[in-house]
Amino acid sequence: MSNYNVSNTTVNVLLGWIEQDIVAIPEIQRPFVWKSSKVRDLLDSLYKDYPVGYIITWQNPDARLKDGTVSHGKRILIDGQQRITALMAAISNKEVVDKDYKKKPINIAFNPMEEKFEVENPAIRKDKKWIPNIAEVFKPEFSVYKFVNNFCEINVGTNPDIISNVIQKLIQIKNSSIGIIELAHTLDIEKVTEIFIRINSAGVNLSQADFAMSKISVNNTYDGPLIRKSIDYFSHLIKSPSIYENIRTNDMEFANSDNFNKIKWAKDYNTNIYEPNYSDVLRVAFTFKFLRGPISNLVSLLSGRDFETREYKEEIIEQSFNSLNDGVLKFVDETNFKRFIMILKSAGIIHKKLIRSQNALNFAYSLFLLLREKGINGSEINLIVRKWLVVSILTERYSGSPESMFDYDIKRFAAHADPKEYVKDVEAGELSDAYWENILPTNLNTSVTSSPYFNLFVMAQIYYKDHAFLSKSITVQQLIEERGDVHHIFPKKYLQKNGYNNRGQYNQIANYVYAEQVVNLTIRDMAPEIYMKIVRKQISESEINIGDINNLDQFKLNLEMNCIPVSILEMDYSAYNDFLHERRHLMANKIKSFYQSL
Predict the structure, then answer these.
(1) Any idea where the GmrSD restriction endonucleases N-terminal domain is (predicted)?
(2) Which terminus of the chain has fewer Cβ atoms in its 10 Å neighbourhood, N or C?
(3) How far apart are CA 254 and CA 259, in angstroms?
(4) CB under 8 Å to 272, separation ≥6 — which residues?
C-alpha cells in the first residue's frame, strides 16, 4: 500500500471541510505568522491560476476501543495551516490571532480595473476604484449585477462587461484547485513524524514538538485544545506578561477554565533566567511524567500506540492525555516554578546569559518535578538539582544527543531509591582528578565569552559573593544585574601594541574579569605591573586612584576572589602566556570548590 494518496480539491470544498471539522487545523488559535502581504500574494496566485503547493493531511491510526470496535480519527492538517488560515481570513472574513494574542482581520483589497490585489489601507478605503475587502464578494448574498452597476456609476468611463468578467474571475478563486496529499492512516507514527519534520512551513523547519502539539490540539475528547493552550499561553505569558489581557479578552472559554487560573500568576512574575517556550514545556512535562526522552514517543502514545504489541488502543490515548495534562499543570504550577528558579539562583545563575544550554535547564526542571513526585525531602531536592545542573554544564551532557541522554538519565533517577547515589556515580566517572587538573583548564583555553566554563566561573563568583576586580564595595553579581561588562586584565590595546594582534590571543577568557567601567577606563592601556604599582601606592598612602581598595588584606583577598595570581604585580606582556596558564588553573580550582560546596 502506498504511503500517501494525491488528489485535488477546490478552495471552497477545503474551507467547507475545515468548517465541518472533517479536517482539523491543529493550532488555529496560535499566532498567525504570515505577513499580510503574503496573504495578498497567495490570493494573486490563485486569481492567476498559479499552483500554490499541496496541503498535507493525515488521519490518525485506527485505535482499538475497549469493546473491540475501531475508532477512526479525523484528518489532521499537518502542512498548509498558514495557507488555509490565510484563505479563511481573506475569503471567509475570519479573524486571525497575532503574536500578542489579539484577534485581527486581514482585509485584502482588489482593484477590478487593474486586476491588482493589495492589503487594505486608509488610502484604499477612500479610493472608489478598490474593493476594500474581497470577503464581501464571496458572501452568498453578493450580486455581481448590482456591484457592476454601482462600480461603473462611481467610476465613470469603465466598461461594465470588462468589470463583470473580472469580478466573475475573482469569484472563481473559490473553485481554484488545491492539491491534497493524504498520508496513509496505516503508516507507523515514526514514518509520519519523519515526514512531518522534513516539511518546511513558512521557511521554518517543523519539529517533533510541533507535531506533538498538533496531535494534542485536535483531540477534543481528552481536552487536547485545553492542554495545548495551557502550554502555549504560559510560554508566552512568562516572557510577555502584557498579553494577559488579550488572552483573557479574546479567549473567554479558556479564561473561564481552571487551567487559566493556574497560569495567570505569571503575569505578575518577572524572570530573566528561565523563559521556556512551548517546546520546553512539552519536553519537561513529557520527560518527567513518562520517563522518556524522544518526543516522537509522545506522538506515538497520544495516538494510542502499545509499544509491545504495536497496536493502537484507545485506553493508551486516554491515559497519555491524562498524564500529559498532569505534567503540564505541574510545570506551570506557581510553587514549582518559583522553587526551581530559587534553586537556579542558589547555584549562582541570576541571568539567562549565564546558562546557554536550554537542554540543561529543561532536564534540571524535569528532575526537580520528578523528585517532588517521588516525595523526596525539599532540601535534598535542592542539593540534587543544583549539583546535577552543574555536572551537566561541566560535561556538556545534553549538547550531543539530548533526547537519548534525557531518556537515559530520567530512567535512572526514577529507579534509584536515593537519587543522590546516581549523581555520585556520574560524578565519579566524569569528574575525576584528571578532569579538574587537566581537562577543565584546557576547556578554559578559549576566547568565547559565552563559554559554559567561563559562565561556571562567574556562577562560582556569584555563589561566593565575590567583589569585582579592584573593588571592595561592588560585587560581581551587582555588575551582572546592572549589565556590566567583562574587561581585560592585560588591556587589549596594551597587548596589541606589543604584538598580540590575534583576537584569540588578547580575548582569552582567562584574561577576562568583571570590573567597574571606571576602573577599566582608569587602567586604559597600562601594563599590569604599572597599574598595580598605582594600586599599591594608594594602599600605602590612602589616596584612591583605581577602584576603592585601600587596605592590603582587602587587596590580597580581591586578587584571590578573582583568581588572579600575585605574580601579576610584576608582569608585563612577556609574561602574558604564563599568566593565562596560571589563571586557568586557579579558575578551575574555584569551579571545583564551588561544585563541591553545593
Answers:
(1) 21-215
(2) N
(3) 8
(4) 351, 352
